[in-house]
Write the structure tokens for this entry.
Amino acid sequence: MASTSLILGLSLIVGLYMAWNIGANDVANAMGTSVGSGAVTFRQAVVLAGICELLGAVLVGGHVTQTIRNGIVDPAVFATDVNVLIAGMLSALVGAALWLHIATYFGLPVSTTHSIVGSVFGFGLLYGGAGSVHWGKIGEIVLSWVISPVVGALIGFIVFSYIHHRVFKAEHPAVAAQRVAPGLVFPVITILVLSIFYKGLHTKLSFMHALMIAAALGIIGSIALYAFLKRSWQDCEGLSYSDQLKRVEGIFRYLQICTACYVAFAHGANDVANAVGPMAGIYAAIKTQALVEQAPVPVWILGVGAIGIVVGLATWGYKVIATIGEKITEMTPTRGFSAEFACATTVLACSKMGLPVSTTHTIVGSVVGVGLARGIASIDRKVILNIIYSWIITIPASAILCVLIFQIISRI
Amino acid sequence: MPWLSDLIGKSPFGVITEHSKKVYACVELIRSAAEALLEEDYDKILQVQHEVSRLEYEADQIKDEIRKILYRRLFISVSRDAMLRFLSAEDDVADRAQDFAVVLTLRQTKMHPELRDEFMNFVNAVIECAESLLVAAEELKALAESSFAGKEAEKTLEAVKVLGEKEWNTDKLQRRFARHFYGLEQELDPITVLMYDKYCRKLGQVANASETAGKYLRAMIELS
């Protein structure tokens, strides 16, 4: 087998390629609605996402060290040949990355998590046989296809309905927004902070303590926004109705940016492992010449992964996110915020329950949920069908690609 | 191809308002045609009729564009059925306006001096109906922005209510006109009476179509 430094170098390149694709396809989940609503420009989105993804990856990402594939395939099957497993992991990564590359080219939002699951599944099935695959896990994933968009839709529906009733139905929407928005800051920050603790900042706080800190920060945030709005957004009562609506959207812009940053942070924490996990696994396998279930991921690897993600977003992200001048009329900050908050909450809740969840599926569901609450009048039938088809073929496609790549690699 | 902007796409409401404006332009010309009738300028009537036909054709084309958009989309918070029927009803308004103009060109009929005022009142009332409809339809974009809630929705529903009242008013004026010309039937030749009756019906149909469109507009706001 080739020298260890060659393998390591190869896994670095492949890891970066994967990270690049994750950036291009997945970060749209966090920033897409914000760019679409005009809350931030594409450039600003890249900068914001960059910072948040990096922080998320480096501060919290190390804990998602399960080199994912072990949930799907039993590594004991490969105990005899570490090299086969290494080659397999590399192929899985390349296969998944290739599928992402193709999907991004066509502007389709596919699940990066499911791409890796698919490729590992393909590898495990072919080389370990049906017995080596944890079918229960596959079943869970299929279940999450339905659950995550549905729950996202439900929460998106509830959040926007709340805004519909408390803000849009009010006599003076802008005045109502000045009260409602700070009120919403409380659950947003509380859930945000709680999830950061729960993703695993290395603290030994009990749930109650974490909750109290999160709630306290939430209250502080609410008061801060309320004071800020009181000072800089005065005289809302005298405005014409359409100006009031503009103000409402202006106020919700802050909330939307806040949730977008949160989703980017959570994405960095969760998904950078998709890119560098295998690299860490290979690194550990080479070092210890054995197979490991859990590999500690050195911070520099996480940093490299995060940078790869940001570069991907900056260079090819425009394929999936609206760029300059493509503001979507019906995607205003109120809708965007509702969708993003729904997505973030759903992903958090599902991760907590151990369900492998896709942020991509969830955000699409959330947007539809907001629509159902009368935030968006209609959606293109063909587009939604294409998106759903692309989700369905993700697992088979990346499985096939992985197997093909493995054939190529094992010849070398 | 950003999936989000493809998914949400262009809102159809802007184009619908365009259609409404075209339809109203058709109806407004009824006034010119009616005035020309009173002045017995039969050439002008022909001119106006051609103009109305042209505008009605343009409205049809916009309508087809809108239908294409509507069929491609999945409506999740407004009833597509209501939207399609609204479109049909508006189309009907333009069609009836054109019918009226055509009827005027069929024969060089003279308007009895006693009937002139009532006739013009009737015509103006019908045009007012269409104007109320336009006012309501123009609010569609703002309605979508405010997610069909609050003051905006109330304003539009109020406009539809006013439309209903105006249509009732045109009914009254229609009856008044009819009773008057039937009252004069001894002084009029039968074909003239026949023509007056046609005018009556066509004008009434314009107002009815406007009211129907208003009803579907209300359905769009209230139903999901």
